[in-house]
Amino acid sequence: MLKDKTAVITGASRGIGRAIAVHMAELGAQVVINYNGSEEKAKEVQKEIIEAGGRAHIYKCNVADFKECENFVKEITAKFGRIDILVNNAGITKDGLLMSMSEEAFDQVLRVNLKGAFHMIRFVSRQMLKQKSGRIINMASVVGVSGNAGQANYAASKAGVIGLTKSAAKELASRGITVNAIAPGYISTDMTGQLKDEVKAQIASAIPLGTLGDPEQVAYAAAFLASDQASYITGQVLHVDGGMVM
Ligand code: NAP
């Protein structure tokens, strides 16, 4: 389905990004696994893909840094000649109640989750415009739609990602580039790993499909949006949340 496409996935050393890289490689894409702190984990993802017969490269870049993103995109464009798919998946949380939230906790989350996506779209879209084709997929969250107590910074960043997605979709549509967002609900990764079992059980009981999701279930949605079969879909937010928000 993604044969010979070049896919760049930010934050692919762990969790959802890792699952997307593995799945897109299974579907024939050559994947660039971006990481920031987890080099060993990124190498493990690369090894797993190569051992399964796929093609994978790793690249360190802090998506919160404008200049680093510029260099990242410049280097991969020079190396591969094209970028067909960009998945802006890198994300962090710094939860806390609004009244006690530090300015730094607010800024850091916005810098990685929202500005990171802007930086990568800013540079990758130039190459996609030249190609007159491309697929951009941004990882939002259900809380960007519904809000969540204790996550004002994170929810604001994800609501911003949705606005960014729709604006980019309108700007880039005439050049054959689609831009969509995925809004996962609670997915079992390191990000939700700190939750206590009783909290997870409480969350699961409020999800119509009754369980937390797996990273692979988000990866399948990302692969579809990246495929030729999704060519008439742009500016949308696809919820992968077991029915949490509808
Ligand atoms: P995770 O397991 O904590 O992994 C986060 C990934 O982001 C890691 O690969 C990490 O790389 C990377 N990352 C963090 N800061 C970065 C930076 N400055 N530059 C480049 N990469 C950076 O998280 P996850 O649960 O897979 O979440 C992935 C995405 O889905 C995030 O955008 C998250 O907000 C969103 N999401 C997750 C859930 C959920 O329930 N898990 C729900 C809704 C939305 P290093 O370790 O190499 O630094």
Chain-averaged pLDDT: 98
Question: Strand order of the main beta sheet, please?
Answer: 3-2-1-4-5-6-7
Helices and strands, in N-to-C order?
EHEHEHEHEHHEHHHE
**Shape from CA axes?**
globular
| Helix content estimate | 40-55%
Output the radius of gyration: 17 Å
Distinct small molecules: NADP nicotinamide-adenine-dinucleotide phosphate
| N- and C-termini, Cα separation | 29 Å
The quaternary state of the protein chains shown equals single chain
Please indicate the percent range of residues in DSSP E strands (runs of 2 or more).
15-25%
Major β-sheet profile: 7 strands, parallel
Derived from helix and strand composition plus strand pairing, the structural class reads: alpha/beta
Tally the beta strands: 7
Q: How large is the count of helical segments?
A: 9
Low-confidence stretches: none
